[in-house]
Amino acid sequence: MVVEDDNTLREILALNLRSEGYEVVEAEDGERGLDLAREAAPDLIILDVMLPKLDGLTLCRILRRESRVPIILLTARGTETDKIIGLETGADDYVVKPFSLGELLARVRAGLRRGRSPEPATELSSADLRLDLLARRTYLGEAELELAPREFELLATLMKNRGAVLTRDLLLASVWGVDYLGDSRTVDVHIRWLRQKIEQDPSQPQRIITLRGVGYRFEG
């Protein structure tokens, strides 16, 4: 579960976690976070300290009284005192903004190892399209497709979030990295290349749907 009031950051975190094979639920404030934690019983919680309605430290204390779920605190304040306060409320880890997605994902994996960790997916499939995430190989029927690394990552991200509309900015942040300075039209170009490879039969429905002015959705 991701509890973060910054919509863009929350969506980027959720997208990247789903791309790693995890199921993700989201909350935009502390009160919703408390309700959702009780309803969903998540395996790990990423919790922002500064939240509306109920701040993260208070929410952490309440959750810790009710369960041993691993909690990672996110904060813009990184003094030793702040870290001690955060950890003494019951948090298991503490990440200071700005942070790299790679570091956070590593901390998530470590937290799940300490708890009850679900295994990330190793294969994705939709009808006759199959992605082997470990070998990084793509198959359409019995034929193997030659995808460039960015094409593979883009397709994997879309398939892991099938049915959800992903904006160009979210896809750029997930596939090219949050520090990428290129134009969002890069996504459009790679989508066109992907379609040429995975939508070879014009009589079949499109796999990747364009929502003009918004982004893309994978239909499985």
What is the CATH-assigned architecture of the largest domain?
Answer: 3-Layer(aba) Sandwich
Spatial ordering of strands, largest sheet: 2-1-3-4-5
Please state the overall shape, judged from the principal axes of the Cα atoms.
elongated
What is the CA–CA distance across the termini? 25 Å
| Helical run tally | 8
Q: Which structural class best describes the helix and strand composition?
A: alpha/beta
Structure summary, number of beta strands: 12
Number of domains: 2
Summed over residues and divided by their number, the pLDDT gives a mean of: 87
Give the C-alpha Rg.
19 Å
- Portion of residues in beta strands equals 15-25%
CATH superfamily membership of the largest domain: Response regulator
Which fold name fills CATH's third level, the topology of the largest domain?
A: Rossmann fold
Helix percentage: 40-55%
Series of H and E elements = EHEHEHEHEHEEEEHEHHEE
- What does the main sheet amount to? 5 strands, parallel
Question: What tags apply to this protein structure?
Answer:
220 residues, alpha/beta, 2 domains, five-stranded parallel sheet, 8 helices, 42% helix
